[in-house]
């Protein structure tokens, strides 16, 4: 950059990168230098980002631009680096570099992400390093996000608040302030937040919760304050806090130490800011987390993050849509069947699918092909799956089969039981970390009392999963542990609290509340009675299990057929599900058991 570099406006620079005119970029803490490709004149420029571009690194990567990130100021382009000013600058830089190293450490050597966050660090520690998009646009729209239709629908409303705020204000409606996006990693939460800004055409100020954790006490709080005051000036706009759990963990958990103190101060500042503005000013706060359970309850109070949007892993058709989005920029061979790929990628999140398409394209290029073939996708799937299996998200075919039989077992048994619980959905798309599949039973009306026959029905339904595994595979798995726990608790309550056994209407609650002084409300129970309770609980469970087995043996063919459908479609609901459930036949002994046990 010795030949006189010329100044350039930042927005023009971004345009040039997007038009693939840029050859090489050097990113300094407060200046960006770049050179155009020879065919575009080869001229060098420098530009001052008005605000940090959140995605500069990925933008550069996606356009194949060479870039270097420097955190020193030793070479100068405009010759102002001297004397005391230079000393001050390099002091600032040392702080910057220090924070940057910490970030690199945290990212676990992930150079890409380390560099991404390193961009924001520079002079002015207290200043928020939230990044805005210069034109007020993220360039992302809902069309870029696929397979999460419900989330999009809910966020459409937020777009409307931002784009047509007056409509709501005129009529006196209160616009919500905070929306929390909850879902597993890589499902598109960050992408959705950007899409909301893109759709509404408003600025997007983002920062990541994890950026706060390593700061000195007080700095995080100052940044939050700064972030909100900037947002108010730019309204209507969106503030996005990624990884909210990093600052939003439940407070006062342990012995205070530096890190905790800092986090608590930051969280308190965030709560203060949340209370200090209202959605009608045109600022809407979005946040994302994949660990909602550890968030401080104060964050969820009305007037704070009172809306939650679930961003879940996509089902088969969702995966096909996501593949279509990411295949847009790739030349596909004639034999590529994206729907077939979608069926082979159960459990993949959007980010995994994006990664898959790219792996396949790399594979094709490595083999000097003109287009990506199905064979490339096959190989890429194996690679990605191998990576994911380590994180134990992908089921082996046998596991999937077990889960499918198990869930159908619940549903078929549940279909015969009294109590107006209707099975409405069965899914074997893995959700979260715990559940491999689930069967959704919705009560048709609110119920406050549980009748004895309904209780037996619930026991049999809970054990139907295990029974289906035993009948169809001849083997049982650990997958039923939660069902068994629930069934046991319920059977025990029936005896000890509801008086529904031959022990009669006596409360034998074994784990009643203890008072502070050590006394408890529990009645003294003799060893014989305790043993009798245990016997009775076991008896009810055995009977319920036997009934579940009897039902599934009688409906063996239906169990088989329904499981095959579920394995193919992953989700069963609505008409097709009800049609299956309507075919379940009741064994003759069912009615007597329900009434008399
Ligand atoms: P999260 O914030 O939930 O961890 P991201 O939004 O960061 O996930 O997703 C990372 C990348 O994966 C996105 O930039 C996009 O390329 C891809 N991706 C994830 N989910 C989707 C989706 N639903 N539709 C299209 N692409 C997706
Ligand atoms: Mg994210
Ligand atoms: Zn189960």
From TrEMBL:
Keyword Transmembrane helix: yes
Listed SUPFAM superfamilies: FtsH protease domain-like (SSF140990), P-loop containing nucleoside triphosphate hydrolases (SSF52540)
Residues where Zn(2+) binds: 406, 410, 483
Required cofactor names: Zn(2+)
Sites where the protein binds ATP: 183-190
Membrane topology according to the record: Multi-pass membrane protein
All residue ranges annotated as the AAA+ ATPase domain in the record: 175-315
Predominant subcellular localization, coarse grouping: membrane
GO BP terms in the entry: protein catabolic process; proteolysis
Cofactor note: Binds 1 zinc ion per subunit.
The keyword Transmembrane helix appears for this protein: yes
Top-level taxonomic group: Bacteria
Active site (record annotation): 407
Record keywords: ATP-binding, Hydrolase, Membrane, Metal-binding, Metalloprotease, Nucleotide-binding, Protease, Thylakoid, Transmembrane, Transmembrane helix, Zinc
Function, in words: Acts as a processive, ATP-dependent zinc metallopeptidase for both cytoplasmic and membrane proteins. Plays a role in the quality control of integral membrane proteins.
Record-stated family: In the central section; belongs to the AAA ATPase family. Belongs to the AAA ATPase family.
Subunit structure: Homohexamer.
NCBIfam families named among the record's database cross-references: FtsH_fam
The protein, known as: ATP-dependent zinc metalloprotease FtsH
Gene source species: Leptolyngbya sp. NK1-12
């Amino acid at each position: 950059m010795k030949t006189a570099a010329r100044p350039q406006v930042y927005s023009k620079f971004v345009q040039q990168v997007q038009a693939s005119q840029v050859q090489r970029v050097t990113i300094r803490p407060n200046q960006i230098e770049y050179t155009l490709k020879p065919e575009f004149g080869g001229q060098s420029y420098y530009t001052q980002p008005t605000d940090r571009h959140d995605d500069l690194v990925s933008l550069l990567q996606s356009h194949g631009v060479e870039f270097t990130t420097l955190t020193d100021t030793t070479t100068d382009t405009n010759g102002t680096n001297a004397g005391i000013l230079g000393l001050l600058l390099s002091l600032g830089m040392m702080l910057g570099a220090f924070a940057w190293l910490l970030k690199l450490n945290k990212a676990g050597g992930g150079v890409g992400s380390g560099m991404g966050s390193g961009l924001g660090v520079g002079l002015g520690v207290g200043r928020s390093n939230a990044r805005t998009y210069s034109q007020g646009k993220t360039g992302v729209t809902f069309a870029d996000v696929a397979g999460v239709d419900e989330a999009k629908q809910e966020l459409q409303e937020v777009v409307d608040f931002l784009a047509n705020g007056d409509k709501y204000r005129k009529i006196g409606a209160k616009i919500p302030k905070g929306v929390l996006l909850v879902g597993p990693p890589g499902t598109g939460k960050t992408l959705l937040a950007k899409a909301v800004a893109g759709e509404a055409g408003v600025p997007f100020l983002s920062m990541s919760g994890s950026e706060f954790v390593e700061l000195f006490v007080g700095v995080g709080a100052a940044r939050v304050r700064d972030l909100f005051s900037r947002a108010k000036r730019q309204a209507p706009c969106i503030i996005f806090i990624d990884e909210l759990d990093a600052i939003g963990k439940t407070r006062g958990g342990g012995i205070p130490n530096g890190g905790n103190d800092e986090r608590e101060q930051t969280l308190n500042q965030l709560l203060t800011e949340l209370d200090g503005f209202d959605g009608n000013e045109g600022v809407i706060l979005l946040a994302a987390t994949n660990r909602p359970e550890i968030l401080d309850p104060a964050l969820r109070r009305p007037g704070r993050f009172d809306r939650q949007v679930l961003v879940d892993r996509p089902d088969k058709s969702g995966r096909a849509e996501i593949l279509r989005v990411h295949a847009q920029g790739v030349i596909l061979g004639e034999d590529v069947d994206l729907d077939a790929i979608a069926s082979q990628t159960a459990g993949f999140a959007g980010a995994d699918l994006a990664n898959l398409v790219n792996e396949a394209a790399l594979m094709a290029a490595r083999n000097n092909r003109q287009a990506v073939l199905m064979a490339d996708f096959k190989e890429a799937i194996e690679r990605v799956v191998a990576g994911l299996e380590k994180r134990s998200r992908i089921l082996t075919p046998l596991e999937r089969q077990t889960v499918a039989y198990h869930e159908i077992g619940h549903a078929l048994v549940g279909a015969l039981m009294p109590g107006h619980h209707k099975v409405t959905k069965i899914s074997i798309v893995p959700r979260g970390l715990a559940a491999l599949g689930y069967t959704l039973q919705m009560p048709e009306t609110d119920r406050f009392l549980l009748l004895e026959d309904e209780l037996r029905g619930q026991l049999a339904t809970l054990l139907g999963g295990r029974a289906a595994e035993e009948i169809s595979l001849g083997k049982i798995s650990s997958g039923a542990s939660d069902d068994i726990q629930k069934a046991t608790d319920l059977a025990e309550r029936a005896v000890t609290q509801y008086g529904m056994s031959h022990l009669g209407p006596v409360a034998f609650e074994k784990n009643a509340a203890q008072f502070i002084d050590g006394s408890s409300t529990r009645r003294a129970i003799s060893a014989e009675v305790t043993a009798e309770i245990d016997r009775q609980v076991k008896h009810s469970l055995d009977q319920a299990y036997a009934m579940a087995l009897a039902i599934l043996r009688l409906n063996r063919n239906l169990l088989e057929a329904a499981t095959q459908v579920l394995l193919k479609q992953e989700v069963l609901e609505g008409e097709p599900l009800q049609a299956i459930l309507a075919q379940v036949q009741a064994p003759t002994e069912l009615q007597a058991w329900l009434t008399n046990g």
